[in-house]
Amino acid sequence: MNIKKFSLYGSEIAVVKSNGVCIADAQSALDFMMSVNYETGSHSIIINKEMLIDDFFILSTKIAGEILQKIINYKFKLAIVGDFSGYNSKSLRDFIYESNKGNTIFFVSSLEDAIERITRV
User: Fold this and answer.
1) Cα(84)–Cα(81) distance, rounded to whole angstroms?
2) CB within 8 A of 69, min separation 6: which ones?
3) What's 24's domain CATH number?
4) What is the overall mean pLDDT for the chain?
5) Shortest CA distance to 16 belongs to which of 46, 49, 43, 56?
6) Predicted pLDDT of residue 121
7) Number of folded domains in the chain?
8) CA dihedral sign, ordered 110, 112, 114, 120
């Protein structure tokens, strides 16, 4: 896992990259958030979608809801970067759409989009 921190518009942002799954359930999400926060002091995190267990994108498993609830409860912001066009689930597409309308969780296609969304006030 590679963590880079930078400041932009008064926000500390951690960009975390990994080739493997780092977040598989609510507890690993909490451990991940606290580790990143400890190392960077940031409550804004950008990750690549490959860091999430595949079951995250199957909403019936409820893993996405449990993980995102931890992020919201601890007042973090999370941008997930990747290509989400390959998912055929209407409920997942709706979930992504609704998440992107909020201020906490974002599903984006590029690092630039992630930075823009995560730094919005």
Assistant:
1) 9
2) 26
3) 3.30.750
4) 93
5) 46
6) 59
7) 1
8) negative
In tens, the pLDDT along 104-121 reads 999 999 999 999 999 885
Confidence bin at 30 (pLDDT 50/70/90): very high
Helix locations, the chain, DSSP H: 26-40, 63-73, 90-101, 111-118
Strand-pair category, 11-17 with 2-8: antiparallel
The whole model's pTM is what? 0.93
Place of tokens 């958030």: 33
Q: Please report, to the nearest 10 degrees, the dihedral formed by the alpha carbons of residues 70, 74, 79, 84 taken in order.
A: 10
The secondary structure of residue 42, as a DSSP letter, is -
d(CA 22, CA 38): 16
CB atoms within 10 A of CB 95: 19
- What angle do the packed helices 26-40 and 63-73 form, to 10 degrees? 30
Place of tokens 């400890």: 38
Contacts of 97 (CB under 8 A, 6+ apart): none
